[in-house]
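sry for the spam today, last one i promise. struct tokens for design, 383 residues
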């Protein structure tokens, strides 16, 4: 406990954030120096490292959605080992050593997410055993960020809006920070944190990646070249955009349970598309579902000055070109324009949330998640 007390009183901390998203491509580790806490927080990225999952390991993670308890149990500890390797590799790439680091923040790998319903609390499961990470690194680990919010009847997602506000707020401006990971989510960053809204807009690149794996035996559509070579099936696109999720009002969250393999199977049963046409249609689904979400829940209330994009989808030039077209005249910029690598942003975000945990501060936003109150996020595991 003395170690935690010493960390609590430090004016600045070195924290490694770890993130493995719904695209299952690997672990992002971001080493950041964080000064202060709350709205006075200052963040500097020192190092970022992406540790790629081997294809067989990635397939095993993907299968957990329908997995057996023994499979999930084993993967929990194996992911703990993999996350530890990512943290150690990140340190090795920096000019620091592990003894100088204060803590590790691990989001974990989402296995299943159930949003709350009327009179029924939601549930969520992220794995990647923090005790393994703590043992291998010798550092305190903050993990399980979502559960405290869900315990207060929230969605437990999205949680990065607090970090988005810290990183991107600007006096007199309203910015939309659009993450396009496996699932896409948006944060409307307003001058006052009380006015921030955020929610999952729907599929990011999860459906595209799933289809690429099934049809082309590739993990993703590099540079969007397959989608660019195909033709959009407008009838299928229109049907997909009528999915009930897009009509739900925020607070809301979703995952591969909704936008995953079962949805792809349903498309293939209704109509046989050329593989290239399916990838093109799914790419347009991501872009147009994002635009639809803005039209319904954002642009009627906020004058958006610019959209900042991050996540794996931001590195798909074809997808980005569609977004730029449908959002004209709103300018779209990559997070790199503000010194934050798109691949590192979410790992950085959970380091910021861990800093609030270590400071004893709540960091969920009830207006965003639907929780009944603010709570301190995360559980602390000591080495």
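last one done:
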């Amino acid at each position: 406990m003395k170690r935690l007390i010493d960390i609590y009183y430090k004016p600045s901390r070195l924290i490694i954030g770890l993130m493995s998203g719904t695209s299952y491509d690997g672990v992002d580790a971001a080493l950041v120096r964080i000064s202060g806490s709350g709205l006075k927080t200052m963040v500097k990225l020192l190092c970022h490292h992406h540790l790629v999952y081997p294809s067989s390991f990635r397939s095993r993670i993907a299968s957990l959605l329908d997995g057996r308890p023994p499979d999930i149990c084993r993967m929990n500890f194996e992911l703990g080992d993999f996350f530890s390797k990512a943290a150690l590799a990140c340190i090795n790439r920096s000019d620091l050593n592990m003894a100088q680091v204060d803590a590790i923040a691990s989001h974990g790998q989402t296995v299943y997410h159930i949003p709350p319903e009327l009179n029924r609390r939601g549930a969520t499961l992220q794995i990647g055993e923090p005790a393994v990470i703590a043992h291998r690194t010798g550092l305190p680990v903050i993990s399980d960020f979502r559960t405290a919010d869900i315990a207060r009847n929230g969605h437990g997602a999205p949680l990065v809006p607090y970090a988005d506000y810290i990183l991107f707020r600007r006096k007199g401006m309203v910015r939309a920070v659009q993450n396009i990971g496996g699932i896409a989510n948006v944060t409307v960053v307003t001058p006052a944190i009380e006015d921030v809204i955020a929610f999952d807009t729907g599929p990011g690149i999860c459906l595209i990646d799933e289809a690429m794996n099934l049809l082309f035996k590739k993990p993703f559509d590099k540079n969007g070249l397959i989608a660019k070579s195909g033709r959009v099936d407008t009838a299928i696109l229109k049907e997909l955009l009528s999915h009930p999720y897009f009509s739900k009002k925020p607070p809301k969250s979703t995952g591969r349970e909704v936008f995953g393999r079962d949805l792809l199977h349903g498309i293939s049963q209704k109509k046989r598309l050329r593989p290239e046409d399916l990838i093109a249609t799914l790419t347009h689904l991501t872009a147009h579902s994002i635009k639809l979400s803005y039209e319904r829940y954002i642009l009627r209330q906020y004058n958006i000055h610019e959209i900042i994009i991050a996540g794996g989808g931001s590195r798909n030039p074809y997808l980005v070109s569609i977004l730029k077209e449908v959002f004209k005249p709103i300018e779209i910029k990559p997070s790199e324009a503000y010194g934050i690598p798109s691949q590192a942003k979410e790992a950085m975000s959970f380091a910021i949330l861990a800093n609030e945990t270590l400071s004893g501060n709540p960091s969920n936003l009830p207006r965003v998640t639907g929780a009944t109150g603010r709570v301190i996020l995360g559980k602390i595991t000591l080495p």
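The two ends are 11 Å apart (CA to CA). ok im logging off now
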